[in-house]
Amino acid sequence: METEKLEKFYVIGISVRTTNENGKAGTDIPELWNKFMSENLIEKIPNKIDNTIYCIYTEYEKDYTKPYTTILGCKVSSIENIPNEMVAKTFENENYRKFVAKGNILQGMVFGEWTKIWNTEIDRKYSADFEV
């Protein structure tokens, strides 16, 4: 784990309000991914910088055990034109801890990395986390 300074950036995409309680996120987030991919929403994001997909966790009610919003989208140069049914998220200049998940995505490597993060003693702000 390393700390990385990120410059201000924007993401536009689709979102769902979910929670890790009772495994709800385990259903909601795959459904969000399915919608994003099956409706080819990546092509409907305006001012897209590239096709890198960001999965953002934000608007935490408290911490990772309480409701939060998940956004799937792409980095954009501007959030002046947000399509209907999409949302925008601004990330200000900030230091982030970088974790790298290694292994087979079909065998839960991403969830495994989150489990490690949740079990660390990091003093988290719970403002926004993301996967690339």
Automatic annotation (TrEMBL):
Pfam families recorded: Cass2
Organism: Flavobacterium yafengii
Protein name as annotated: Effector binding domain-containing protein
Domain Integron-associated effector binding protein: 4-132
Entry-linked InterPro entries: Cass2, Reg_factor_effector_dom_sf, YobU-like_regulator
